[in-house]
């Protein structure tokens, strides 16, 4: 059967009508026809709506399809389907012909719109392979890189093209054979039972563990580190969108990188120390025995522990620091009262811009007071030098503090205010821009703490988490 479209009418109320004439026949009886419309853009075709009409499906029959709520753009009636009588999910495809392309609102004939669709599709390869430039490379020299980041544990529905990027689902699936064989060998050695991996289990695992690639065709970046940071951030944003839609977050598994010097494929799985309970190097049984009863007994301790593990899994540096700060703020509220005046470690008052002593009604002051009076701070040392070449010691740590010509001391209050500045920028602007945070000594400290010492805030959050578990 063929559906021929003709006689477009565009109305002042923003609706559009088109006539359709059927010819030919269908293999099975049908009771309604659905007309499917896609929007044609410079990057891809996207389905936007379907309208149905209950008609007597036979040769020579005509019906009218109406469309409402279409945004300005270029469209095509991509297909028609007929619903089989009594079979709600069974469809029969109908070939489309005639004036299937149109602009909304109307601008030119359907033939003109068809030519525009043809030309737009012909130019897509240029848009798909467009060069993406990192923010830091936009004002400096750099190099070109091709990047592919592979994700597991989530399904994407078909090839998706964006400007400069292709999202490609792979036919291959995750394979558990090596893991299953290792487990079977252990069971046989431990019990003497000749266990064999179940073939159906292997098939189920492959079906449930899809792989897709985020292929960034050309990145212009300052250097390789800049390119990797840009690509991972871009791919992570897409993974976040997949998580919103699918309810499951993809995990990065591998990365491919190519530049003028060569190419490499390397893993992106978490580092081994991410799976260790600090400060000990191994997950000893007595630590689990110590912590688990407290976690079971205290929902609040379990909450903080879960927040900390989620922060460890966060791949975006700024978001991770935001999560660590949220942990400290959550815990500080439980232990520090409001309106308590705060002072430096030497006892001198901490003043605000009006020369009044700050108090714990401010979030930053409350976290500071918690770190100062409740939490036993972990030792800190930074290998990174200050901009003038001096070593850096952090006040409040258990390391000796030497304020000499070759050593710079960063007060605990300065650390807290620096991290709070990063927290605010991420909370209110979505990111922290290092490039604009180096115009004076205070901002230089903020940039330094952000770039050189993420472990400082992480260790604060870890110590607070363990303290909450121990107190439960």
Compute the number of strand runs. 17
Order of helices and strands: EEEEEEEEHHEEEEHHEHEEHHHHEEHHH
Domain module tally: 3
Largest sheet: 8 strands, mixed
Question: Over the alpha carbons, how many angstroms does the gyration radius reach?
Answer: 31 Å
Strand content: 25-35%
Helical residues, percent: 25-40%
Helix count? Answer: 12
Low-confidence stretches: 271-286
Structural class: alpha+beta
**Shape annotation:** extended
Average pLDDT, rounded to a whole number, is: 80
- Measured between the Cα atoms of the first and last residue, the distance is 72 Å
Structure report:
The longest helix has 23 residues, at 224-246. The chain has helices spanning 110-122, 124-128, 177-191, 199-208, 224-246, 285-297, 299-313, 317-335, 363-373, 412-429, 441-452, 454-471; strands at 2-10, 16-23, 30-40, 45-53, 62-67, 73-84, 91-98, 101-104, 132-133, 143-152, 160-162, 165-173, 210-221, 251-259, 262-267, 391-394, 407-410. It has 472 residues and is of the alpha+beta class. The protein folds into 3 domains: 2-122, Sandwich (Immunoglobulin-like); 128-174 and 209-267, no CATH class; 272-471, no CATH class. The strands form 3 sheets. Strands 1, 2, 3, 4, 5, 6, 7 and 8 form an 8-stranded mixed beta sheet that branches. Strands 9, 10, 11, 12, 13, 14 and 15 form a 7-stranded mixed beta sheet that branches. The chain has a two-stranded parallel sheet with strand order 16-17. The chain is extended and about 95 Å long. Strand 11 and strand 12 form a beta hairpin. Helix 8 crosses helix 10. The protein has 12 helices and 17 strands.
